[in-house]
Structures are given as structure tokens and as C-alpha cells.
Design goal:
The chain is an alpha/beta fold and 805 residues long. The chain has three domains: 92 residues, no CATH class; 377 residues, Rossmann fold (3-Layer(aba) Sandwich), CATH 3.40.50.2000; 268 residues, Glycogen Phosphorylase B (Rossmann fold, 3-Layer(aba) Sandwich). It is built from 34 helices and 23 strands. α24 links the parallel β19 and β20. The protein is globular. It starts with a helix and ends with a helix. One of its GO terms (cellular component) is cytoplasm.
């Protein structure tokens, strides 16, 4: 790409005159970032053309990955690394008096997701490009993302996230590839030559405009694309009469309603209007994506070769949000390509595959039938036919058949069950960790599993080690490569070679030095952003993830309250300096999670401002968690808190990011923690709490009594009483809703039940941390054995076992 730094400087300075008609010296830092990003994007686009020609030449099977979220993070540094030019660019910019890191900070985090689902999808795209799989993301271009989280008066407040306000240099608008999406209207039946046809009429047309973002694979050989769809009016309309009357909002009402489809990720669905908008979002993505796939297939293979479709196309739905891919593909094959039902159905099932990411009932989407009928009349008719045929073929002779039919039917109790639609309409259904898949097979979807076990399989999640280790922790990356070579960047199982350094004091010392520097870097950020001075020699105990009751940030902050109470009673208590770091967003309408955020920040106010504890404890909540903030946090962590209620976390990917960076897991036997435990052994992870079987047993027998447990434990009772007895009187109102959830409503997620064992495991973790050499060996073991959790491994398994590419 560049022959050296002199060639880079020459091309870079020339680009300013081409792009903004001003010399480099007269431009702002933002302009210098934007020009650099445009240079790299232009190169990536050319590489994509070459990649696509290669795919076309070998008639490669294409994989289309549908997801409501793609949390890409900042792309410039990632792509400089993947193209192998980061050092060249850094040195060239230094010669020009610029700092690459300062330019990198100009880039916004794209507001295209919320949490682990989106970060996983981005890692998968990275690995597909690296492995040379013809994989393409299908997502939505949210103008304001989810929201920008601000903490004011200890509470979460949501602000718009205008991440596109300065433009996005990585995207290419492709108006020539626009697709029509239809909402509402009615369906007419007509008969010709003995065949029935369905005509959708009276609908509202929304244009889906694609914006393509290049996905550069490591090594720069392959560049795939993420296609993001934006909703726009089919034609410019304005109600002139309303405008002339001064009713300006009414004049632009239709345009505003259409643009709202891709304005904000996950609009609040507590109202009918919010639910309708969410369903519109999901169908908009699906309809636009399927139209694009069909158009490309017909261009490549012709309009009369549909039997080959499953051989050349794989469509994967990431959770239930894109479940409408199933009826939409059938609709296109029936109504536009005029196939018969049986052929369309066979093609669809062979093409579709589905990943489930949850065991939480509320996350298994269901839509009211009347809403689906009104908004998507033809699609609903197809869903109705799929359900009818499923019921017709259902084995009614089996025991308990009525209950099984109720649990597996698509239409039941006035609702469309999207997970059931996804399972019935796909040839593969996978969970994302061994324990998660086991729960799906034997609990959540057990009736499906009994009837069609061949469809179910496990694909344990993975993360991009190039993003979350090499880019996020460059000094560690360099040290690893100096020790074992750089083959680990292509094959993460090579990290096992680090185990030979477990007894090397110089290597262990270097690891500690790198960890300390990363802690100093995070400490500087915290002091700048939060005004809190923290000790980099303290234990960094970290929990960063979406705020949810089952993820049990509450258990973590109760531990902090316990330690604070202990120090207040005994100032000489043997507790090493600890910094507890939290970050994550609560959904806008999730009041309990917001109360947990308020509690964490309230406890932080009390602890951080109490001079009597001698700075032994510090509590920090970092607002607006993002990929780039995660890249700052993961390398600095000592303890990785993965403490969800056993059986509730599908997999987790934060646990993997921490592991690659040498943090040590303190967690339950839940999600991928189970597989981390199997890999590193009991001496290199700290496990506590109920097992998933014990949790289910308590639910089944209903023999857990949280109030009694609390009364029998004075220290635990003190903590729960502090929620409501005026302890926080100077820091806001009391926390009755949290207290009631634990005591009155019997502690659904077993925070109180696991509390004592959690303290025991935490104290063992701290003791290990104090034994410096032992802790560093544990940390090294985790890095060395993290290779299994690369998204390269995960995607290789998807490719071979599900997509057949």
C-alpha cells in the first residue's frame, strides 16, 4: 500500500489537495483524521473489488449475516493494523508533526449496537474476512444509535448519540442498490389458469438505501462488506396545505415517520407505537436484505436456477430480531419468482440457520397477531400457512401432545412466536456455549429438540484477538510475538507456547510491567473523566457489561458495601487497596437496572469521599460503555467479574476479552465460564455459587426463602437494611425497589443466596493476587489458553458445520 513512510507522506499530503483543496498544514486535526480515513477506505474499497472478483471467479457460496446490531468500534487503527501499515503511518505522521493516537481519537464509535450481541457480530465479520469466507453483514444504519449514557446525580440519563453528525468516512452510499419495502395495505387473491396469486395492494412504500462499510481482514488480502440500510421516503412529499397553515410538523409527518424506522436502535416498546416501530425496524432490515440477496443471485446464476440457491447462499439470523427472513424469503419465491410452496419451503429451510442468544423468556420475541396482520399482511399470511402445515404434520399421538404443540407452535395465544418461527424455518439452530446449548436442548426448546435433534448444535462464541489484544494491548501483543513469534495472530492455539515461560522470572516481570502501564493509562482516563484519583497499585476489580438483574452487578456492589462496613468497624482490617470499576448501559425502560446504576454511584459517593478508610476502597462507574472504552479497560483489569446467575448467561464475550488480556475470572459456572474452567483448570480461575441445576431445582421446588436467609446473616441483613434505613440519606433517596426485589419478591436471581460463597471466592482471588509470582503465572496461563475463544475458531465451525462453505 505504501512503499515506506516517505511514500506515505507524499500520498497523504497530496490527498489533502484532492479531497479538501487545502494543504496539510492548514487543516484541523479532524480534517487530518478524515483524510487519512478516506485514504484507507479508498484502498479498502479497491481491495473489496478484487476480493469480490475472486469470489465471483470461483463461484463462492455467500454467507449473509443478519443482525440488528454490529458494534464495530473505531475502524482506522484496526484497518491500519490489518493492512500492515500502522508503523509506517505512525512514523510518517510523526515526521509531519502529528500524533497518530490523537487522530484516532477523532473517530466516533458507530452507534450500531448495544452490547455483546453487536460486539460478537463485528468479531464474526472480522473473522470471515480473515478466513476468506464470502461473508456479508446485513444491518441497519441507526442515525442516533441506542443512546449516549450520562450519569447525573448518580442516575443514568439518556441523550441522543449523533455519531453521524460529522459524517462517517468509512461508508459508501449505494443508491443504485436501493430496495423497496412495503408496509400496511391489503392482499387480494386472484386465479389464473387454475393457480392462485396474491397481490399486495394499498401499501406504504419505504425506500431502503444501502451504505456499505468495508470489513478489512487481517493481512489485507480479503475485504468483505457490511451493508447498512437506511429508511427514506420513496418520493419527496410535503403537505403544502398544512405548511401554509403553519402546521410544519404535520407537513413533514410522513417523512419523519419513515425516517424514524432507522433513527434509534431498540425504541421503547412499552407503548403500542413503540412496538410497531420495532417491528417495522425488523421487517425493514429483513425485506431490504432479502431483496438484495435475490437480486445478486439472479444476476450471477440467472432467474431459473432456484434449486442451486441453498448451495450458493447461506442466510444466518443472529437471534430472533431477523426471524422474518423465513417468511420473507418464501414470499419472494412465491409471489415474485412464482415457485410452488413445497419448493420455496425446501429452499428456505436449507438456506436459513439461526443462533439463539438467550434463555430469558422475555427475550424470546413475540408479536401480537393483530399488529403483524395490519403491518405485514402478506407476510402474516405466509406465517399462518407455515403454522398450519406445522400443526398438520405434528404427531398428535405422542404423550402430552397439546402442551408440546403449545410450546412449539408459531401462533398461540394471540401472538407470533419468533423463536419457534426461526427453529421451524431453519436447518440449524445453535447455542453459543456448551452449557447454553444444553439448556436450550433440555429446557427452553426441549420439545423441538426431542422431535428434531439433528437441527441443534453448539458454537461457542469467540472474539477478535486482533481487535481486543493486538490493537487494545499493543505492548502485550509485541511481547507475545517476541517470545513465540507472530503465528498466534493467524492461529491463536499457538498461544499455548507461552506456557514454557511460566517459570521465567524475567518474562513474568515484563507481564507485570505491561499490566501496570495499562492500569496507569486507565487511571489517567478515570481521573480525567470522573475526577477520581485511583491507585494503579490497587487491585482493579472490573465488571463491564449491560446492566441486568441476572448479570448481578448488585452482587458486586453488595460486596463493596460489605468491605466498607468491615473497614468502618475495624480500620485495621487486612484488605488490600481495591478499585472496583463498573460500566454498562441499562435499557431506557428497565427501571430496576437503572436503580442498580444509581446504587453503584451512590455507594461510590460514600466510599470515595470517606477519608477515614484511608483510600483502601475506590468505586468508579464509567459512563457510556463502548468498544473503544472496552479496549482501554480490558488490558488494565486484574479481576474479571463474570458473576451471572448460573444458567442465565448464554455465553458472554467479555470474559474472553479479559482472558486474552491476562485478567483472571471470578465467576459462576455459567456461559463460557464453564469452558474457561475446563481449559485453565481449577487453580487458574475462581468459581463460586449455585450451579444451573441447583438454580432450576430451587425454581421448581419453590423452597428458597430469601428473607429468612437474610435474617440469619447479620452482615447481609446490615447491607439490605442500608438500602432503606437512611444510610444513604445524604446521597439521594432510598432503594426500596431493590430491597423489595430481594426480600419481598424472594430474590429471583439468588443474589443473597450466592453472597457468602461469592465473598469466599473473592477473598481467595485477592489472596492469590497478593502472591505476586503465583498471580502472574495464573494470568499467563489464562493468556496462553485463551486461543480457543478466538472468533476465527467459531467462524470456522459455522462455515464447516452450518453454512457448508
Amino acid at each position: 500500500m505504501f512503499a515506506g513512510k516517505e511514500d506515505f507522506k507524499k500520498q497523504y499530503k497530496a490527498e489533502f489537495m484532492e479531497t479538501i483543496a487545502r494543504p496539510f498544514e492548514e487543516c484541523t486535526k479532524r480534517e487530518k483524521y478524515e483524510v487519512l480515513a478516506k485514504m484507507i477506505c479508498s484502498r479498502a474499497a479497491k481491495l473489496h473489488t478484487e476480493t469480490k472478483l475472486g469470489y465471483d471467479k470461483r463461484r463462492a457460496k455467500r454467507v449473509y449475516y443478519f443482525s440488528m446490531e454490529f458494534l464495530l468500534g473505531r475502524l482506522l487503527d484496526n484497518y491500519l493494523i490489518n493492512l500492515g501499515v500502522e508503523d509506517t503511518v505512525r512514523e510518517g505522521l510523526a515526521d509531519l508533526g502529528e500524533n497518530l493516537d490523537e487522530l484516532l481519537s477523532m473517530e466516533p464509535d458507530p452507534g450500531l449496537g448495544n452490547g455483546g450481541l453487536g460486539r460478537l457480530a463485528a468479531c464474526f465479520l472480522d473473522s470471515m474476512a480473515f478466513l476468506g469466507i464470502a461473508g456479508f453483514g446485513m444491518g441497519a444504519r441507526y442515525r442516533f444509535g441506542l443512546f449516549k449514557q450520562k450519569i447525573r446525580d448518580n442516575q443514568q440519563e439518556e441523550e441522543p448519540d449523533p455519531w453521524l453528525s460529522n459524517g462517517y468516512p468509512w461508508e459508501i452510499r449505494r443508491s443504485d442498490c436501493a430496495a423497496e419495502v412495503h408496509f400496511g395495505g391489503s392482499v387480494n387473491r386472484r386465479y389464473e389458469n387454475g393457480k392462485i396469486y396474491f397481490d399486495h395492494v394499498g401499501y406504504q412504500t419505504v425506500m431502503a438505501i444501502p451504505y456499505d462499510v468495508p470489513i478489512v481482514g487481517y493481512g489485507g488480502k480479503n475485504v468483505n462488506m457490511l451493508r447498512l440500510w437506511q429508511a427514506e421516503p420513496a418520493e419527496e412529499k410535503i403537505n403544502l396545505d398544512a405548511f401554509c397553515r403553519g402546521q410544519y410538523s404535520e407537513a413533514f409527518r410522513e417523512r419523519d415517520e419513515i425516517e424514524a424506522i432507522t433513527a434509534i436502535l431498540y425504541p421503547d416498546d412499552s407503548t403500542l407505537a413503540g412496538r410497531e416501530l420495532r417491528l417495522k425496524q425488523e421487517y425493514f432490515l429483513v425485506a431490504a436484505g432479502i431483496a438484495s440477496i435475490i437480486k445478486n443471485y439472479k444476476f450471477t446464476y440467472g432467474a431459473d436456477n432456484w434449486a442451486k440457491f441453498p448451495e450458493k447462499v447461506a442466510i444466518h439470523t443472529n437471534d430472533t430480531h431477523p426471524a422474518l427472513c423465513v417468511p420473507e424469503l418464501i414470499r419472494v419465491l412465491l409471489d415474485q419468482e412464482h415457485l410452488e410452496w413445497d419448493e420455496a419451503w425446501e429452499i428456505t429451510v436449507k438456506t436459513m440457520s439461526f443462533t439463539n442468544h438467550t434463555v430469558m423468556p422475555e427475550a424470546l420475541e413475540r408479536w401480537p397477531i393483530d399488529l403483524m396482520q395490519r403491518l405485514l399482511p402478506r407476510v402474516y399470511m405466509i406465517i399462518e400457512e407455515i403454522d398450519r402445515r406445522y400443526r398438520e404434520n405434528f404427531d398428535h399421538s405422542q404423550p402430552d401432545c397439546q402442551r408440546k404443540l403449545q410450546s412449539t407452535a408459531i401462533l398461540w395465544d394471540g401472538q407470533v412466536h419468533m423463536a419457534n418461527l426461526s427453529i421451524i424455518g431453519s436447518h440449524s439452530v445453535n447455542g453459543v456455549a456448551a452449557i447454553h446449548t444444553e439448556i436450550l436442548e433440555h429446557d427452553v426448546f426441549k420439545d423441538f429438540y426431542q422431535d428434531m435433534p439433528q437441527r441443534f448444535n453448539n458454537k461457542t462464541n469467540g472474539i477478535s484477538h486482533r481487535r481486543f489484544l493486538l490493537e487494545a494491548n499493543p505492548e502485550l501483543g509485541r511481547q507475545i510475538s517476541m517470545a513465540i513469534g507472530n503465528s498466534w495472530l493467524f492461529d491463536t492455539y499457538q498461544l499455548k507456547n507461552l506456557l514454557r515461560y511460566k517459570e521465567d522470572p524475567d518474562f513474568l516481570k515484563t507481564l507485570r510491567k505491561i499490566k501496570y502501564e495499562n492500569k496507569c493509562r486507565l487511571a489517567w482516563y478515570i481521573e480525567r473523566e470522573n475526577g477520581i484519583s485511583i491507585n494503579p497499585d490497587s487491585i482493579f476489580d472490573v465488571q463491564v457489561k449491560r446492566i441486568h438483574a441476572y448479570k448481578r452487578q448488585l452482587l458486586n456492589i453488595f460486596k463493596v458495601m460489605y468491605l466498607y462496613n468491615k473497614i468502618k468497624k475495624d480500620p485495621d482490617a487486612e484488605i488490600p487497596p481495591c478499585t472496583f470499576i463498573f460500566s454498562g448501559k441499562a435499557a431506557q425502560s428497565y427501571d430496576f437496572a437503572k436503580e442498580v446504576i444509581r446504587l453503584i454511584n451512590t455507594v461510590a459517593d460514600v466510599v470515595n469521599n470517606d477519608a477515614s478508610i484511608g483510600g483502601k476502597l475506590k468505586v468508579v462507574f464509567l459512563e457510556n460503555f463502548s468498544v473503544s472504552l472496552g479496549q482501554l479497560i480490558y488490558p488494565a483489569a486484574d479481576i474479571s467479574e463474570q458473576i451471572s446467575t448460573a444458567g442465565k448467561e448464554a455465553s458472554g464475550t467479555g470474559n474472553m476479552k479479559f482472558m486474552f488480556n491476562g485478567a483472571v475470572t471470578l465467576g459462576t459456572m455459567d456461559g463460557a465460564n464453564v469452558e474457561i474452567h475446563e481449559l485453565v483448570g481449577k487453580d487458574n480461575i475462581f468459581i463460586f455459587g449455585l450451579s444451573s441445576e441447583q438454580v432450576e431445582d430451587y425454581y421448581r421446588k419453590n423452597n428458597y426463602h430469601s428473607s429468612q436467609l437474610c435474617e440469619e446473616d447479620p452482615e447481609l441483613k446490615e447491607i439490605t437494611d442500608q438500602l432503606i434505613n437512611g444510610f444513604f440519606k445524604d446521597n439521594g433517596e432510598e432503594f426500596w425497589s431493590i430491597h423489595d426485589a430481594l426480600i419481598r419478591y424472594n430474590d429471583e436471581y439468588f443474589v443473597l443466596k450466592d453472597f457468602r460463597d461469592y465473598l469466599r471466592a473473592w477473598q481467595e482471588t485477592v489472596q492469590a493476587w497478593q502472591e505476586t509470582e503465583r498471580w502472574t503465572r495464573i494470568s499467563l496461563t489464562n493468556i496462553a489458553l485463551a486461543g480457543h475463544f478466538s472468533s476465527d475458531r467459531t467462524i470456522s465451525q459455522y462455515a464447516e458445520e452450518i453454512w457448508h462453505v
